[in-house]
Each structure stands twice: as structure tokens, then as C-alpha cells.
Design goal:
The complex is a heterodimer of chains A (90) and B (375). Chain A is built from three helices and five strands; from the N terminus they run ββββαααβ. With 90 residues, chain A is an alpha+beta fold. A three-stranded antiparallel beta sheet of chain A has the order 2-3-4, with helices on one face. A two-stranded antiparallel sheet of chain A has the order 1-5. In chain A, a hairpin with a 4-residue loop joins β2 and β3. The longest helix of chain A has 13 residues. The radius of gyration of chain A is 13 Å and the shape is globular. Chain B is α/β, with parallel strands linked by helices and 375 residues long. In chain B, α1 packs parallel to α2 and α2 runs parallel beside α3. The chains are: A alpha+beta (90), B alpha/beta (375). Chains A and B meet through β2 and β3 of A and loops of B.
Chain lengths: 90, 375
């Protein structure tokens, strides 16, 4: 499974992305499970709102953090996210 | 309560709310205590709301509404709503019995995140026999409705000697029902399952055959369905890391308000498990004797004490040590290093003898009459 560059990316409707005050981190919640996210992973997933494609997510994050060259890291993370069912592209 | 630990424990992440011991089903491997009929005095709605609030404040985020059959509680939608407002991820763990489309919609509106439906077998005849109630067709209907209303659907099938031969059909059924997750839970031998072990424990050959089939299916459905495979620990040579370590992650509240470090801990002697009617969740978690009893490695005897795997499995399961060796401080006898490891082979042999017997003893079903007889 890999990311289709032409389609927007959406966070899964059957998972929940949430800030946990007690843990001071974002987590993904799903049936009987939880994944703790580091800050960059959480920032990527927050942009998976069903309107942005991979290239748009990369350019938005590069602009937000005044940096460049994030394409490879973001693509690799989103492919993991896709395999885990956290995001989809329907 | 006396403070027994020097460092502050990690906060609970998982809260299992056993709302009631009432259940229309009679599964002979039920994890509820044999003497469940003794505990009739259920917490009321306000008690449960207070417990949810206190545990959430400490950091609990996964919440299981369980039982018994949690749908028998009329205040379930109100508790679900409260949980959602607090930010829990709510899991309803149900037999599906009594679940209608109307209730599924109401629970969704209240904020329920997920419904886990149990099915006892892949055929109506065996399902209804094991459940002790005609329920197969309704369960399948419920599974469809859960999907229809946008919940992630977990199908849970408890595996034992009566249904393990149905593994291919169980997998096909999960696929047909569109399960997002399939939990294949090899029976864990506590409570009623311990009583019925001779009738329920499959042979090693049966386990191995079923596992190969399940593993092949797992690869086949990768990306579509996730498989949770609960291992049959009688056929392992190291114990499970029970509850992810005692008092580290899991908090169970029994129907009458007794707080348990694991849902079987009620049967351990001398723990004096505290009640949420007398103490706050924070006091119970941090300070009670019961929750500190097996925290860390101080309690360990040999062979655990000097074992280089003690931080991996924490000595295994104390309930299993108690049930099989008579002393909860012993190493879980599943471990091949345990001096009591022979009891596991004895249990396997005893079950095999029972399977071959001409007149096999019947299963003892989980119901009030049998509970009173056994307590």
C-alpha cells in the first residue's frame, strides 16, 4: 500500500486523534488500543482532513515550520499510517 | 490506607467497568466469579459517574463497559454520554443480546465509540448450545447493524475444544460479517472456565492446527481486518505478562464497586480489595494494599527473583499461580522454570482423558442456580 499523490488524505472515521492532558501528548484511539504520537506525527495527521493531498501536506508543514526537505519523512510516516488504517484515501 | 510504595505508580490507562453480573447468556467459560450471585448490590448511576470522572482525571482513556451483559443496565446511555464528555474512548463489550437498532443509534448519539460483539461458534446449533440461549441469528443481525451505523466492529470468539474445529468457518463468518477486528480468544482458565477445564481445553495438536489456519487468514486479510490472537498459555513455556504488570495500566471495577487489579483478582485470598464506595480511585490506585501487593519485583520468590526475564513477564499471572499451586506468590506454573510446571501437563492430560471418556462429564453452565451450588 502506498499513498496516491493525486487523492486527498483523510483521517480514519473509526479512529480518534486526541490530546491527552495526563500524558502531555497526542494519541490515536481505536477499539481497545492506543498509539502515542510524537509531536511531528501528530502535526502531520492533523492535516489529514480530507482536503489536502500529500504534496499540500508537505508544503503546509514546511511553511508552518519554516523548513524544507520534509517530503521523504512525511511520505514514510503516512505510508505507515495507511497500513495501520489511521488514514484513508477514498 | 498505608502507603506501601516509595515511588508514585504509573497512572491507570484502561478502566474496565463491569456494570453488572446479570447476563442472559450462560457461557461455561465466563470470567465472572463462580459466586457472582453473592454480589447483588450494584453501584448506582451517580457512583459510576464519580468513578469515571476520578479515573479519567488520573489519565485513564480506554473504557470498557462490560459485565455480565452491560445492556441490562438501563442507565448505559447516560454513562456513555458522561464518558464521552470526559474524553474516554468507550468500548461496549456485549453478547449483542437485547441490542436493537434503536439502541445502537441512541448509544452512537450518546458518544459510544465501538461495539464488540461476541459469537460463540460459527453454527447456530453450537452457538446456542454454548451460550445456553437461542441467540445466533440475532447476534449476526446485531453485527450487521453495528457496521451499518458506522462503528468499528470487533467480533470476539472464545476458542475451546467444542468449537476449535470450526476455525475455518469462524474466519469465513468474520469476513462475511465485515468485522474490522477479529478477536480469537483462546480460553483463559479462570472462574467458570477453570471449573470446566477438562471439557474445554483442546489438545496441543488441535491448537497448532487452528493457529496455522488463523495465521494464514491473518496474512490474507491484512489491511482489511485485524486479528487479535489471545494465546493459549497452557501450551507456552513462558507466562503471559499479565495485565501489563500488576497495578501499572489496568483498573477493573466490579458491579458492587470493588476495585480489582485484574478482573479475576477477586478470587485471590487476603488482598482486601477496596471499594469505590469507601475510597477515591486515586487513593485506591496509589495507596491500597491490593494495588501495591504485586507491584514491581519485591514480592518475587525464586525462580522469578533471579530470572533475567522478570521485567518482561513480571512472573506471569497470580490468579493462575493461586488456582494451580495454591499460593498466589508462586511463579505462574506456565513457566517451564517453575517447580510446579508439572501441573500444566497434568491439566492437559486430564482434559485429554476426559475427551476420550465414553461418558464425558457435562459442561457446568454459568447461571444463578449453578453459582449458588458452587459458592
Amino acid at each position: 500500500m502506498s499513498i496516491n499523490p493525486d487523492l486527498p488524505i483523510q483521517f480514519s472515521r473509526t479512529h480518534r486523534l486526541q490530546w491527552e492532558e495526563a500524558q502531555q501528548k497526542n494519541v490515536i484511539l481505536y477499539p481497545e488500543g492506543m498509539v502515542e504520537l510524537n509531536q511531528s506525527s501528530a502535526e502531520i495527521l492533523k492535516l489529514c482532513d480530507g482536503t489536502r493531498t500529500l504534496a499540500q501536506i508537505v508544503s503546509d508543514l514546511e511553511a508552518a515550520f519554516s523548513t524544507s526537505g520534509l517530503t521523504n519523512d512525511i511520505t514514510a510516516f503516512l505510508e505507515v499510517a495507511l497500513q495501520n488504517g489511521w488514514i484513508n484515501q477514498n | 490506607m498505608a502507603g506501601l510504595t516509595k515511588t508514585k505508580p504509573t497512572p491507570p490507562r484502561w478502566l474496565l467497568a463491569e456494570l453488572t453480573y446479570a447476563c442472559p447468556l450462560q457461557c461455561p467459560y465466563c470470567s465472572n466469579p463462580l459466586d457472582y450471585t453473592k454480589y447483588q448490590n450494584e453501584l448506582d448511576t451517580e457512583d459510576w459517574k464519580r468513578v469515571l470522572t476520578q479515573a479519567r482525571k488520573m489519565g485513564a482513556v480506554q473504557l470498557g463497559f462490560s459485565g455480565g451483559e452491560p445492556l441490562t443496565r438501563q442507565d448505559l446511555p447516560e454513562l456513555v454520554k458522561h464518558a464521552r464528555e470526559l474524553g474516554y474512548y468507550s468500548n461496549l463489550i456485549t453478547s449483542g443480546y437485547g441490542l436493537t437498532e434503536e439502541k445502537i443509534i441512541a448509544l452512537k448519539a450518546a458518544g459510544l465509540d465501538h461495539i464488540q460483539v461476541s459469537i460463540q461458534a460459527s453454527s447456530q446449533e453450537l452457538n446456542d448450545h454454548i451460550a445456553g440461549t437461542a441467540s445466533f441469528n440475532h447476534k449476526k443481525e446485531v453485527a450487521h447493524l453495528v457496521k451499518k451505523h458506522g462503528y468499528p466492529m470487533v467480533l470476539c470468539v472464545v476458542i475451546h475444544r467444542e468449537n476449535i474445529h470450526q476455525m475455518p468457518e469462524i474466519l469465513a463468518m468474520a469476513e462475511e460479517l465485515g468485522a474490522d477486528y477479529l478477536e480469537l480468544a483462546n480460553t483463559q482458565y479462570y472462574g467458570w472456565a477453570h471449573t470446566n477445564r477438562d471439557q474445554l481445553l483442546p489438545t496441543k495438536a488441535q491448537f497448532e492446527k487452528a493457529e496455522i489456519i488463523a495465521q494464514a487468514f491473518k496474512e490474507q486479510v491484512a489491511g482489511k481486518m485485524k486479528i487479535y490472537y489471545v494465546v493459549p498459555d497452557f501450551y507456552e513455556d513462558r507466562p503471559k505478562a499479565c495485565m501489563n504488570g500488576w497495578g501499572t495500566t489496568f483498573l477493573t471495577i466490579a458491579p458492587d464497586g470493588v476495585a480489582l487489579p485484574c478482573h479475576s483478582a477477586r478470587e485471590l485470598p487476603g488482598l482486601d480489595c477496596p471499594s469505590v464506595k469507601d475510597y477515591s480511585v486515586e487513593e485506591i490506585w496509589n495507596e491500597s494494599k491490593a494495588f501495591n501487593y504485586f507491584r514491581g519485583t519485591e514480592w518475587m520468590k525464586e525462580p522469578c527473583r533471579s530470572c533475567d526475564e522478570k521485567d518482561k513477564d513480571f512472573g506471569g499471572c497470580h490468579c493462575q499461580a493461586y488456582l494451580l499451586t495454591g499460593d498466589m506468590h508462586n511463579t505462574d506454573p506456565v513457566c517451564s522454570k517453575s517447580p510446579h510446571h508439572g501441573v500444566i501437563q497434568e491439566a492437559i492430560d486430564s482434559a485429554a482423558t476426559s475427551a476420550l471418556a465414553e461418558n464425558e462429564k457435562p459442561l457446568i453452565f454459568r447461571n444463578s442456580k449453578n453459582s449458588k451450588l458452587l459458592s
